[in-house]
Design a protein that fits this description.
The chain is an alpha/beta fold. Helix content is about 40%, strand content about 10%. It has 15 helices and 13 strands. An 8-stranded mixed β-sheet has the order 3-2-1-4-5-6-7-8, with helices on both faces. Helix 1 links the parallel strand 1 and strand 2. The longest helix is centred in the middle third of the chain and has 32 residues. About 45% of the residues are buried. Bound molecules: ligand SAJ. Keywords: NAD, Oxidoreductase.
């Protein structure tokens, strides 16, 4: 890669991370080719449109596509820097599946040339970047690859995890600090020079394995801390206490900062990544494993409590507020709210009403349940019981006067002034236990 000119970049995988990343790199003036296996995705992007929702992404993609800086294809082409941002799911035994990463490596290997930089961004179990390197070495015996040669390698390979928060991706892609782990220090320096083109946050170099573990640790840390909050909420239910009040007071201690309980942990990162650590060191991870169990268990606790509440009020009209996996986004993947609402819809049918301002229609599992989608105003006018599953701002701002006579099960603690909360019905807590 010539240091004086802007590198041509190929981003493999145009999903929630790959597409915003490609767009931000293009905005920095690099010519970017986005690769995806879906022709539909490729066509959408080449029209200057997007297939995912993210704040301000539509305008950015439209701009860089129309300026000729970003294009998409299902066929690889030579570039100077390759950024791999493909999914790394796990199987039914929670074992990580890195086949998409290796498939991406297989795709780019034939076009690699001397001077190229390959960067893996996908959340990956420790050792994946080395496996990617081994695969490239196998496919391209003509290239000297880092860690496998005593001479100066022909290419650089590094791991640099994304750490952006859905809903704030564009801002965080630019402003967050980055950990850049090279297979060798030289690889890290090459990748660093690339990230410096579009990242304003600090870029810290390390080795590839440490960077892989860092990403997993960040999400496991959050999972464990959310589990603590969720466990407290179940203890508080048992004791008839308001967990929000207890947390508010405890957080006044200068060294205590308890997170917020909710209906469980959703999304595709925090509920997944801790398993990569557990899988790598099963004997040494009782805490991380237990936290996963607590957070999954919290969803079932909410289901039992909501079910007991609805069953105890025959004829009452129920509104489930929210389906998204967290506040103010339209992402419904792995969402505990969606799961809880669907369970109620299947059991109680037309008594159940779903309020989700970020969904134009209800997800497939609500079909034929009898449950219907209504807006928040109609819910406030017509429903007797409100079950708050997501802390969308549009719910948070509902004034007390409009909900004072409702029976509320608030799993997110958005209405601390609510007079009739479910926790005040001790029989329900007993039923839910
Ligand atoms: N949640 C709670 N209580 C809280 C905080 C979150 O119940 O106090 C729930 C949310 O409602 C949601 C889930 O946890 O269901 C996850 O939400 P989140 O906002 O904690 O995280 P994600 O999944 O949107 O993004 C995370 C972020 N990781 C960390 O904060 C350590 C993000 O920076 C990562 O880039 C992203 O995972 C990822 O891609 O790995």
């Amino acid at each position: 890669m010539k240091s004086d000119t802007k590198p041509d970049v190929c981003v493999v995988g145009l999903g929630y991370i790959g597409l915003p990343t490609a767009a931000v790199i293009a905005r920095a003036g690099c010519k970017v080719l986005g690769l995806d296996v879906s022709q539909r995705v490729v066509d959408t992007i080449n029209r200057g449109e997007i297939h995912i929702e993210e704040v301000d992404l539509d305008g950015l993609v439209h701009g860089v596509v129309s300026r000729g800086l970003l294009s998409a294809s299902i066929t690889v082409a030579p570039a100077d820097v390759f950024v791999i941002a493909v999914p790394t799911p796990f199987d039914k035994d929670h074992a990580p599946d890195i086949s998409y990463v290796l498939a991406a490596g297989k795709t780019i290997a034939p076009v690699l040339k001397v001077g190229d930089v390959v960067i893996l961004e996908s959340t990956s179990p420790v050792g994946t970047t080395e496996q990617l390197r081994d695969m490239i070495a196998q496919m391209r015996p003509d290239l000297k690859v880092p860690g496998c040669t005593r001479e100066t390698p022909d290419i650089a390979i590094a791991y640099c995890p994304e750490r952006v928060l859905p809903g704030r991706i564009l801002e965080e892609l630019t402003n967050n600090d980055r950990s850049i782990g090279g297979i060798t220090p030289r690889c890290a320096r090459k990748a660093l020079a690339f990230y410096k083109r579009f990242v304003r946050g600090e870029c810290v170099t390390t080795d590839a394995r440490s960077a892989e573990m860092t990403k997993l640790v960040e999400n496991a840390y959050r999972d464990v801390n959310i589990a603590f909050a969720n466990e407290l909420s179940m203890v508080a239910d048992r004791m008839g206490l308001d967990v929000w009040e207890v947390i508010r007071l405890a957080n006044r201690h200068p060294r205590v900062n308890i997170l917020s309980p909710g209906p469980g942990v959703g999304g595709h990162c925090i509920a997944v990544d801790p398993w990569f650590i557990v899988h790598g060191a099963p004997e040494e991870t009782p805490l991380i494993r237990t936290a996963r169990g607590v957070n999954d268990g919290k969803m079932h606790h909410v289901i039992r409590k909501a079910d007991a509440l609805v069953a105890a009020h025959p004829g009452a009209k129920i509104a489930c507020l929210g389906l998204a996996f967290k506040a103010n986004i339209d992402d419904f993947r792995e969402s505990p709210a969606r799961f809880v609402a669907a369970r109620l819809a299947r059991k109680y049918g037309e008594r159940v009403h779903i309020v989700e301002p970020y969904a134009s229609e209800l997800p497939i599992e609500f079909t034929d349940t009898g449950a219907v989608q209504i807006d928040v105003d109609e819910a406030l006018e017509t429903c007797d019981i409100l079950i708050v599953l997501v802390d969308h701002d549009v719910f948070r701002v509902v004034p007390l006067a409009e909900r004072a006579d409702k029976l509320v099960y608030d799993t997110r603690g958005i209405w601390p002034d609510q007079p009739k909360l479910v926790r005040e019905e001790p029989d329900l807590v007993r039923l839910a236990s």
